[in-house]
Amino acid sequence: MQTEASRRAARSAMPWWRRMCLGFVLLWFTLGGIAHFLYADAMVTIIPPGLPWPRLAVWVSGVFELLGVVGLLLPRWRRLAGWGLVLLTLCVTPANVYMWLHADAFPAVPGWLLLWRLPFQIWILFAIVVGAGLWPRRDRQG
What we know:
The protein has six helices and no strands. It has helices at 4-12, 16-38, 40-44, 54-73, 78-101, 111-131. Helix 2 (16-38) crosses helix 6. The model has no long low-confidence stretch (mean pLDDT 90).
């Protein structure tokens, strides 16, 4: 016989596909956040010209990526962290577009990879939304 606590835990268990998305997002932003500090010089080169303080932008985005990871690990903060990572992903998309439009400035990166990064942003956004439980919401009535 199941106890009420075990029934509640079973209902709140995350489906495998949501766990996979969450795991991907955790790995992606952990590695990315660390890279913002280990490879800051390289990251600065992809900041579109005209944006002020490119090194600070790299560091701040790295901090927010790592804070997002911590928030995703804490169920109470998961949704807020998810929304933060959605916003952060949208904010860094201009750097990916800049790299694609100025591929000659990044000869070490194949052009197909620069183009591939743009639709990959959509997958990242999808994985954040699903993994963080932003959608679908099962706790809404009606």
